[in-house]
Amino acid sequence: MRLRFLNSGDPAAAGNEMSRMEVDAYGIGIMLPKASCILLKADDLSCICANILKQEMLSCGGDAAVPRHAISGGRRKTECLLIGSLAQFNRLREKLKLQPLGLSSLSDRITAALENYFRSEYRLKLGKYTLYPGRRKYVMGILNLTPDSFSGDGIYSGGIDYMAAAERAEQMAAEGADIIDVGGESTRPGSRAVPLREELRRTIPAVKLICGRLKIPVSIDTRKPEVAARALESGAVLINDIGGLRDAKMVKLAASSGAGVVIMHMKGRSPAVMQKSASYGSVAKEVHAFLSLALEKALESGVRPDGILLDPGIGFGKLPEHNIELLKELRGLRAIGRPLLVGVSRKAFLGKILKRAAPRERDNAGLAAAVMAAERGADILRVHNVKAAQEALAVAEKMCP
């Protein structure tokens, strides 16, 4: 007799093994919900609700943790960590429907969160292009048209060589880029805003040329609604807004144009000051709350749901330890209900880990972080080195169930 562990808590691994064992399909369907271990955190509860929630989860065979003060009622708001299998959470949802004090509505929220968390595929509509996050991982190639890019890859030598920019975009497409992201303003920590006229001069001719030569989606990386509008007129189909749709004009443009949009979290109002605001109680909790609210507002304003991507904003108003914590907890953002775009390529926190200053020396570390992000739920990776990213993903996807 021999014993071996499978990937604990992974329903896919359990399903694969049961299929290999030729377990009856009906039996597999019954057992799969029991093969996961889910940690679901409920915040901002009253103490009485937290205690009821704990007792109901215990009665379902799961477990729950509450702070000491929740028992004594020493604070107005508290939290509860629920621990259990999908089957136990399904029983909990039914029990909560019979409870007062708003716990019946919590049942609906748990249902939606679990559906999003385990969702296997999205349909992402970007102009005439349709992507299917979940079927595979996608790569967004970075094209910086700036003289001061933090990564040192900006195509700018006394001015923009638009043909060189188009050729670089073509090279990335040949290497496997699924999206080209064009930017004309550096957003490195401490960077100052580029005047509107200059950003238009840098980006719009390049966007026109690239869209005319490539048959993949082109994204415009900008905080300015005027730049985004001109880029969309020139063929771009995705607005990559590091401002997180906090500009009312950008929201209106995204809604009226029907374009895709990336909503990103950034602490602070601009790259010039964002690192001065890098303070969190829980970075994962704050980013989740920001993106959830931003998504709600976008949908209320008429932005198409099938065109929205969410980006946790690695490096934007975050210290190295915040970036690492956020990447560890990345999978939790899937519960919001939209595909995730993550950019870790050549970021400064990698240099801190390696104790290397030069951005181009961080590529290997960036690949490792990108693959881990993909394994934790990222659907699209924003990278400088497209070929290396595609090769790393091809190997990683063979190893993931």
Q: What name is given to the CATH topology of the largest domain? A: TIM Barrel
Q: What general outline do the C-alpha atoms trace?
A: globular
CATH secondary-structure class of the largest domain: Alpha Beta
DSSP helical segment count? 15
- From the N-terminal CA to the C-terminal CA, the straight-line distance is 26 Å
Order of helices and strands: HHEHEHEHHEEEHEHEHEHEHEHEHHEH
Secondary structure: helix percent: 40-55%
The computed structural class is alpha/beta
Rg over C-alpha atoms, rounded to the nearest angstrom = 23 Å
CATH architecture of the largest domain: Alpha-Beta Barrel
Detail the poorly predicted runs. none
> How large is the share of residues in beta strands?
5-15%
CATH-defined superfamily of the largest domain: Dihydropteroate synthase-like
Instruction: Give the number of domains.
Output: 2
Task: State the strand order across the main sheet.
Answer: 11-10-9-8-7-6-13-12
